[in-house]
Design goal:
Helix content: 55-70%
Radius of gyration: 20 Å
Low-confidence stretches: none
Structural class: mainly alpha
CATH architecture of the largest domain: Orthogonal Bundle
Distance between the termini: 51 Å
CATH class of the largest domain: Mainly Alpha
Number of helices: 10
CATH topology of the largest domain: Tetracycline Repressor, domain 2
Order of helices and strands: HHHHHHHHHH
Strand content: under 5%
Number of strands: 0
Shape: elongated
Largest sheet: none
Number of domains: 2
Length: 201
């Protein structure tokens, strides 16, 4: 009879791996279970080995990002909401810098790529709302604008959360997003106000 897996053990191993990354410690089988009540076999039981652990860590990064984005409530101002999603993306990267690095390590497959895609889809949906509200041009491709917006957030996160630049650099998100959204059809003064309102870090 197969032994029931304990989800707490799985979570504990993921948290320990994330902590080891944060401390710049090598993530090894023995190091992962040191000081716990589980053996190295737990890594095989729950993840089918170290490659599976890295896949799960990538997925955990997207799971946390998805949860953070879900905290952004939709308002009557979809452009403000787009900026707020960008700020949430950056907030997640700042809080989980080591998981953030692992998220984009394409050397390991994701456990659920559709769940990861959902994070971008949330931005696409918000672009649709802005377009329907007349803030963006009617011929605009929502996926293209969402990807461009995502690129700005990812660039800032890479430079600040996991890179060499100070947190003050994040303020550049306001003029960058404003320029992007104005080019997409929004009115400059209104757009700047919306972006400032949503860009709360």
């Amino acid at each position: 009879m197969a032994r029931t897996k304990n989800p707490h053990v799985r979570s504990m191993l993921l948290e320990r791996a994330a902590l080891m990354l944060r401390r710049r410690e090598p993530v090894t089988l023995r190091g992962l279970v040191a000081g716990t009540n589980v053996s190295t076999m737990a890594v095989y039981t729950y993840f089918d080995g170290m490659d599976g652990l890295w896949r799960a860590l990538r997925q955990e990064g997207f799971t946390r990002l998805s949860a953070r984005l879900a905290e952004v409530a939709a308002t009557a101002d979809p452009v403000r909401d787009l900026a707020a999603l960008g700020a949430a993306y950056l907030g997640n990267a700042l809080e989980n810098p080591d998981l953030y690095r692992v998220m984009f390590d394409a050397g390991f497959e994701l456990e659920d790529s559709a769940a990861a895609d959902e994070t971008l889809h949330r931005v696409v949906t918000t672009v649709h709302r802005a377009k329907d509200a007349g803030r963006f041009r009617s011929g605009l491709d929502p996926l293209e604008l969402a990807t461009q917006s995502w690129t700005i957030g990812h660039g800032l996160a890479s430079l600040v959360a996991t890179g060499p630049l100070p947190r003050e650099t994040l303020a550049n998100g306001i003029p960058l997003l404003t320029a992007l959204f104005v080019a997409a059809g929004d009115e400059r003064t209104r757009c700047r106000r919306s972006v400032r309102e949503g860009w709360r870090l």
